[in-house]
């Protein structure tokens, strides 16, 4: 996320928002934010949303996720929202959304998806 210059903008129980500023390094040949960057912030938002519900000895790993790219990812920035649909002791399912946000605040849903994560115990250090 540091490399992408993405940042957490909201952390709540089971819900996390990540903002990715649009800049040339994350765009593709037509000037839209690349699907890889769009997918990365969606995956991370869901992962952090799931992690927010577990104890400090837990970590999460993505088991699978599906992203539908609904519209070109354009705007001043993208905002990914990860929301836990079903928390579990082992597996957790999250809903993923990515919005393109214009400088005037106008928003457009550019991607949505679903993710399954597994909770693992953080290794002892």
What would you say this structure looks like, in words?
There is one protein chain. The model has no long low-confidence stretch (mean pLDDT 96). Strand 5 and strand 6 (107-121) form a beta hairpin. The chain has one helix at 35-51; strands spanning 7-12, 15-21, 58-69, 77-86, 91-101, 107-121. The chain contains 1 helix and 6 strands, in the order E-E-H-E-E-E-E. 14% of the residues lie in helices and 49% in strands. It is mostly beta strands. A 6-stranded antiparallel β-sheet has the order 1-2-4-5-6-3, with helices on one face.
Task: Average the pLDDT over all residues and give the rounded result.
Answer: 96
Radius of gyration: 15 Å
Shape: elongated
**Could you give a short account of the major beta sheet?**
6 strands, antiparallel
| Major beta sheet, strand line-up | 1-2-4-5-6-3
Instruction: State the separation between the terminal residues, measured CA to CA.
Output: 24 Å
Oligomerization status of the protein chains: single chain
Give the number of DSSP strands.
6
Q: Structural class per helix/strand content?
A: mainly beta
Low-confidence stretches: none
The portion of residues assigned to helices is 10-25%
Strand content: over 45%
Number of helices: 1
Would you list the SSEs in sequence order as H and E?
A: EEHEEEE
């Amino acid at each position: 996320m540091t490399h992408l210059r993405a940042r957490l903008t909201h952390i709540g129980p089971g819900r996390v928002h990540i903002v990715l500023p649009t800049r040339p390094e994350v765009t593709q040949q037509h000037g839209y934010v690349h699907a890889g960057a769009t997918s990365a912030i969606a995956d991370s938002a869901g992962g952090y949303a799931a992690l927010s519900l577990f104890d400090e000895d837990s970590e999460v790993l993505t088991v699978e996720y599906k992203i539908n790219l609904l519209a070109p990812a354009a705007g001043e920035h993208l905002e990914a929202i990860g929301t836990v649909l079903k928390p579990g002791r082992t597996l957790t399912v999250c809903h993923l959304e990515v919005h393109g946000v214009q400088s005037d605040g106008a928003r457009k849903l550019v991607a949505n998806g679903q993710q399954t994560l597994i909770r693992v115990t953080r290794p002892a250090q």
